[in-house]
Amino acid sequence: MDSERIKELLEDVLNDHGMPRTIRTALEESLATLGDEEDINVKLASIISALDEASGDPNISSYARTRIWNLMSELESMKQ
To answer: What pLDDT does 1 receive?
Structure first.
């Protein structure tokens, strides 16, 4: 599993100007998590959890929520 691919996916959504600040913060924290020495599956679980929490915000648009859910699905498929 490639941390670079995960980083690309997160940055793609982070650079989307339609993302609210709460989602951007979760994505930035998730990117910081990739630098940790933990197992990649632990990192993915942590990132998915942060994104799931952020996507539960009732104030985000359906576009942003769908984009986050798609990202979470892709990250989930990377787990070993």
So the answer is: 55
Q: Of residues 38 and 64, which shows the higher confidence score?
A: 64
Domains and CATH numbers, the chain: 3-78 (1.20.1440.50)
Which tokens hold the place of 32? 């910081």
pLDDT at res. 21: 87
Find tokens 């769908």 and name the residue: 66
DSSP for 7-23 reads: HHHHHHHHT-TTS-HHH
Regarding pTM above 0.70, the answer is: yes
DSSP 57: -
Tokens of 46: 């942590």
The separation between CA 77 and the C-alpha centre of its own chain, rounded to angstroms, equals: 13
Location of structure tokens 């630098």: 35
